[in-house]
Every structure is written in C-alpha cells, then in structure tokens.
Amino acid sequence: MVVVRGDHGSTPQLGLRISGAVLLAVSAGIHLDLYLTGYRKIPTIGWLFLLQVIVGFVLTIAALVTRSRLAAAASAALALSTLGAYLLAVWIGLFGFKEIRTRAGLAAGLIEVAAFATLALAAVTANSGRHVGAPAGLSASVFGGAPAGAFGGTAVGEPAGTGTGAISGPGHRARARARAQSAMSMVVAAVSAVSVAALALLGVAVVSAGGSPVAAADVGANLKTVKIGGVDVLANADGLTLYWFAPDTTTSSKCFGSCAIYWPPVSGSPAAGPGVTGKLGTIKRPGGGLQATYNGHPLYTYVGDRRPGQANGNDLDLNGGFWYDIRVSR
Questions:
Q1: 194, 212, 225, 230: least surrounded by Cβ within 10 Å?
Q2: Range list of H helices, the chain
C-alpha cells in the first residue's frame, strides 16, 4: 500500500523550490535584456539566448507550481548548461563569438551557480513527504493509529505468526531511514562539489577573459567603404563596418570600460581610402590616446561583426544609447 501525506511538501523543500525558481527567472531576465540590447543580431548566439529565455521562464513556472522532481532537475540542468555555455564562449568562443568579461556576465554566472545548487537540492528532496511501500497494517500506526497485529500480533483474517510487525517493525523502519539519510548526504555532497567546481571555473574564466582595453595607440587608421544592402558603408582596413554612438559628442567619447570591449574604438589618425569622403579627425580617448572620427563622430567596430559585409551592430540600443553604421555619400 502507498500512503501519501496530505501536505504539499515541507517548508525547507518549498523554500528551495521558490528560491531556485526565482534565481532561474533572474538569469532568464538577464539573458532577455542582453538579447534585446544587441545579442539578437549575433548569428546563432542570438536565437540561443532567446531559447534560453523561453525555456528558463517555462521551467520557472513548472518549478513553482509543481512538486515534480523532473521539473526541478531540468531547471538545475538548464542553469548548469547555461553557465557551461558562457564558460566556453569566454575561453574558446562559441559559434564564432568570443565572450568578454562584463558585470552582467559575472552576475549571471553567479546566479546560475546558485540556481543549480538550489534546484538540484529541491529535486533531491521533492516528494519527501511521500511514504512509499508502507504495509497496510502499518499505515495507521505511521499517522498515530495502532492496528491489530502491527507490532507482532495477528491481524484479522491472517494466520498466526504472520503479523505485519514481523515484516516492517521499528527496526526495519530505522534501517530504511538510515539508508535514506546516507543516500541524501551523498547527493548533497555531490551537489556541493559540483557547485564549488562551477564557482572555481567561473572565477578562472573571469580572470582570463578580456577586460577593459588599454589606451588607444597613436597609429594610423586606414578607412575604406564596403557595400551592404546596396549602400556604401564606412569600414576599417579589414573591411569591418564602422559605427557611431548617439550619446557621443564631437569632442568626447561616452563609450569606455565594458562598452569599449563590445565596441572597440578605432585608434589613431584616420587616412581616407578610395571612396571615402567627409571630414576626418581625432579626439582624445578617456584613458588616453587618439580615436578616429568621421564628420565629428568617434568611430567604433562591433564584436558581433565577424567578417566584411556584416552590420550586426546597426540600430542597436546598447551600453546607454543607439548605434548606427556610417553611410558614405558619393
């Protein structure tokens, strides 16, 4: 016989589910913000971010409204796999995109470690209030009753000497409880070990990832034009599209720190190649060095562009303002 408690889980288990679901939702929210503010235009990475957001919110709901061990385990697996993808993107690149160190990435990584640990423990303790396999004669005694024959006597209709107490007495229950506690301790230790390892790997990734760039060197910047969608667009010597940042002024750049990692400034005094018209100049970078300008706009490339002819950074609202490619008039 299977006897089930009428409650909806112990308070610690409920707390784990709620905490884990909230952490997973926060992680999905960070990825949604990154997706909307630029990542959506990065090939492959963009739709992977969107998929993570959708699955993250679906599993958040599942973890909150169900006691399912599977929902909690799937949520923990999503958190850990998302962290793994971030680490791969930092170390070796993922689908041609190499991630850099940002506060958002670090925050998401820490949240994902916490979400994994919390949801994995929630999966382990799910349905902990369910008593499986309790004999019929024992069910009442578990919840306060004392049926005939439960402790060695003979139940009605049973032959002498076959009382349920002979099968599942207090000693049997104590041994089963001890085995369950031992297994639980091993699983908790395993979850803790994985969480500590994940934190260590995240720390190594943060240290090894690219940080704020050094001051731009005073070297020449050769500019040219490339055609994108039938329009002449300003590009650097490698053919990568150049952008201007709406918050900038003609004398200063508002993009520095982590912004300058996603949008590397074009350094040095610019030189016009074939097809380049307009006024070229320079400004002083916040950290020193010169940055090239075109018609008063400080120039940048975008890490989401991997080859000539791409303009994945055009019309993005990222790092405090909009970014636009530079159209060149003939």
A1: 230
A2: 11-36, 45-65, 69-91, 103-125, 136-142, 170-208, 259-262
